[in-house]
Write a structure and sequence with these properties.
The chain has about 350 residues and is of the alpha+beta class. It has four helices and 16 strands.
Length: about 350
């Protein structure tokens, strides 16, 4: 079941000056969420008070809101639990094309879990990543869960976690799940050399987000259905181009855009990119080598096997695989979507 975020309405984003307190917290006798605006950040996830009760149940504290994305990022088939919290009396500011503007003190929480095949498919939480809007900008904080599932500890350079699980198709996977370090997190969240959220854009959120009850700012240009990313679970019901462009937006465009880490590649894969050459169609790669697999074009219309884009998605080899981080297995569902799109091109 999908759940959608509900925003606090009617106030402008919080302004935090140099003399502001380093710690903001809700009422409720100190049991509410705590957000830290500067170092030192808590060593334990529990210190943020994002969840209550059994830690592994991820039951959100008051004001902590679960949400989903229409088309999410692939992360080795992990189950993800997304939450956001903003300080009381604040709101996010709507943007038609960019990530919404979130107030200082905002906490994004994303938890990654797998059904553990060695424990009767009981869910095992691996990590929780926090993205916190601090005094000096956004900060990435990876917390690694213990085997007892009672606590997660801040680890800026964590070791991989071996995971055994069974895909719904019946295929058994053994994955050395890589927990990105803080620099790798910054690499994905890099926009013009500044760390920022990348998921919560109007086009990748449910329509329930997009009204004045949840956001401040101009709302008369809310994207029509045709301009929103389709639901990933509906990928077989929509045109191949829509499913593929949504997948590229979620899995590639955070680097492959004019302001991202891969801007110099000339391959820009955002949902709203109008130039077919920048999308890779009959575009030679900027840098040849192992990554290109001796192929001539990033996307060879009508020829999936001749397309560098598909070649790199279908590899786990360092220096070839794309995305470079965030996965240690090939996304077969995503591969099928991109293959169908390229095959449909003429």
């Amino acid at each position: 079941m999908k759940s959608y975020i509900r925003w606090k309405a009617g106030f402008s984003p919080l302004k935090v000056g140099a003399a502001a307190a380093a710690l903001l917290f809700t009422a409720c006798g100190g049991r509410g969420v705590r957000t830290h605006l500067a170092e030192p950040f808590p060593a334990k996830l529990s210190a943020w008070h994002l969840f209550i009760g059994d830690p592994a149940a991820l039951k959100p504290n008051a004001g902590v809101i679960p949400y989903d994305l229409n088309t999410p990022l692939f992360s080795d088939y992990a189950t993800k639990y997304r939450f956001v919290w903003m300080p009381p009396g604040t709101s996010a500011t709507y943007s038609e094309a960019e990530v919404f503007d979130f107030p200082a003190g905002t906490i994004f929480s994303k938890t990654f879990a797998f059904p553990d095949a060695d424990q009767g498919d009981k869910q095992r939480i691996i990590e929780t990543r926090l993205l916190v809007h601090g005094r000096s900008g956004w900060v990435t904080l990876p917390y690694v869960w213990n085997r007892e599932q009672t606590e997660a500890t801040l680890d800026v350079a964590a070791d991989p976690a071996t995971v055994h699980w069974v895909h719904p198709s019946g295929t058994r996977y053994t994955i050395d799940y890589v927990i990105p370090n803080t620099n790798q997190c910054k690499g994905c969240h890099d926009t013009s050399k500044t760390v920022a959220p990348i998921g919560p854009k109007a086009r990748n959120l449910a329509p329930a987000w997009l009204d004045a009850q949840h956001l401040t700012g101009r709302l008369d240009t809310v994207p029509a259905v045709a301009h929103r990313l389709p639901l990933w679970e509906d990928r077989a019901k929509v045109a191949p181009a829509l499913a593929a462009r949504a997948y590229l937006e979620a899995n590639c465009a955070y680097c492959h855009n004019a302001r991202g880490a891969a801007s110099n590649s000339g391959l820009w894969l955002g949902w709203d990119e109008p130039d077919p050459v920048r999308l890779g169609l009959r575009k030679p790669p900027v840098a040849a080598g192992r990554g290109s697999g001796t192929l001539a074009f990033d996307v060879a219309p009508g020829d999936p096997g001749g397309s560098i884009l598909l070649h790199r998605m279908d590899s786990n080899e360092p220096g070839v695989a794309m995305p470079e981080i965030g996965r240690s297995s090939v996304d077969r569902d995503g591969l099928a979507v991109i293959r169908a799109w390229i095959a449909s091109l003429r």
